[in-house]
Design a protein that fits this description.
Elements: H1 12-17, H2 19-22, H3 28-36, E1 39-43, H4 49-59, E2 63-67, H5 92-103, E3 108-112, H6 121-125, E4 130-133, H7 138-151, E5 155-161, E6 164-170, H8 178-181, H9 194-197, H10 203-220, E7 229-234, E8 239-244, H11 266-270, E9 281-282, H12 284-292, E10 297-301, H13 305-310, E11 317-318, H14 324-327, E12 336-340, H15 345-356, E13 360-364, H16 367-374
Parallel strand pairs: 1-2, 1-4, 2-3, 4-5, 9-13, 10-11, 10-12, 12-13
Antiparallel strand pairs: 5-6, 6-7, 7-8
Helix pairs in contact: 4-5, 4-10
């Protein structure tokens, strides 16, 4: 593809700034002017979005939109290297916009401090030449894909999990879309997020940088973008593998006879909008008072062993959620059981399961994170 304009003049300062890039025959002054006349929107300025946005800003892409409604947390800092300790609690889009402007004052940075959804995606994404999907959840990925197909824009995609990453370009004009590769989302309980599974901090830097390379190729009309190809990276053995993806003629959004002609409810499509289990709960302060009052309580930790090794409530018993059904026999139905996890989501499922089997179980509201906040500030959090 070519950017909307290739006639943007370059100032003397810009020529000096981009000189090492402009000596490339594939770029040159004309390519640099094309970048200046281009626009890119990055959805999610986290682990992937930060390296993608920094390199695109430094390269001279003239207008960059960033979409994010999240706030910066301490657990972000090991991989989201644009932020520092002093930024914790700030809105990612606002902080990133300020810092990207310092990276390159010659370009426009447009923060969108909203959650991208079906009500605003067409309007926001429609303002830009290329869309970069740096999100971390399936509803957002399907939303971005469908919006890009309907708008006729390329979707530069990447995702990460622990030590592995993948990257591709979904451009329905020239090849398959995301739905051609993943027609249906996985069951909502089958995929762990990075808070549970973990992620090597440098991995999103690698994959986000690869996204920036793809965007540059698209804007300059160079190379062979990854349309129809999915590149897989393994950080443990430093291997790259490539899978070929074919366009699905029956794809519901980009096929010959599309069934999806407008954006849908993606939370419902992915099954992530279901209500949390209706279980009995106890707050950290209530649990502390019961323990101090001498009540006999079995405190059950359903996190993974590495989480338990990092921090735990004293005298708790560890049975990871995935093992609970087969190890339920280790528990006594006469005991008062309080179940906890990181934030209370997994433990709610565990409490629902135990209650259905006749156990006297309650969920610790907010999990070990709330326990550290309300009861034991000395406990490390993650």
């Amino acid at each position: 593809m070519k950017a909307a304009s290739s006639a943007e003049p370059l100032s003397k300062l810009e020529v000096e700034r981009y000189s090492r890039q402009m000596v490339l025959p594939e770029v040159g002054p004309e390519g640099q002017r094309r970048l200046k006349g281009s626009s890119v929107v990055i959805v999610g300025v986290g682990g992937l979005g930060i390296p993608a946005s920094v390199y695109l800003a430094a390269a001279g892409v003239g207008r960059i939109g960033i979409v994010d409604h999240d706030v910066i947390e301490k657990s972000n800092l090991h991989r989201q290297t644009l932020y520092s300790e002093g930024d914790v609690g700030g809105l990612k889009a606002a902080v990133a916009a300020q810092k990207l402007k310092l990276v390159n004052p010659h370009i426009a940075i447009e923060p969108h401090k909203v959650k991208l959804d079906s009500s605003n995606a067409m309007e926001i994404l429609g303002r830009y030449d290329v869309v970069v999907d740096c999100t971390d959840n399936f509803p957002a990925r399907y939303l971005i894909n469908d919006a890009c197909v309907l708008l006729g824009k390329p979707d530069v995609y990447a995702s990460i999990f622990r030590f592995d990453g993948q990257v591709s370009v979904f451009d329905a004009k020239k090849g398959p879309c995301y739905r051609c590769l993943f027609p249906e989302p996985p069951p909502p309980d089958s995929v762990q997020d990075c808070a549970v599974a973990g992620v090597m901090g440098v991995l999103p830097g690698i994959m986000g940088s690869l996204q920036a390379v793809q965007v540059m190729n698209l804007l300059l009309g160079n190379g062979q973008p990854l349309s129809g190809r999915l590149v897989l990276f393994n950080g443990t053995d430093m291997s790259f593998n490539e899978l070929r993806i074919k366009k699905n003629p029956d794809c519901p959004v980009c096929g010959a006879h599309p069934k999806i002609t407008k954006l849908i409810d993606y939370e419902a499509f992915c099954g992530t909008n279901r209500a949390a289990p209706a279980v009995k709960e106890v707050t950290p302060r209530q649990l502390k008072a019961r323990i101090e009052g001498g009540e006999k309580i079995l405190i059950l930790d359903v996190r993974e062993p590495f989480e338990n090794a990092y921090c735990k409530i004293e005298s708790s018993k560890l049975i990871p959620l995935g093992q609970l059904e087969e190890r339920a026999g280790e528990l006594n139905k006469e005991d008062q059981i309080v179940v906890y996890c990181h934030t209370g989501v997994r433990s709610a499922r565990a409490t629902e399961f135990l209650s259905s089997k006749g156990f006297r179980a309650q969920n610790l509201k907010g999990g070990v994170e709330a326990w550290a906040l309300e009861v034991d500030p000395s406990m490390p959090t993650y």
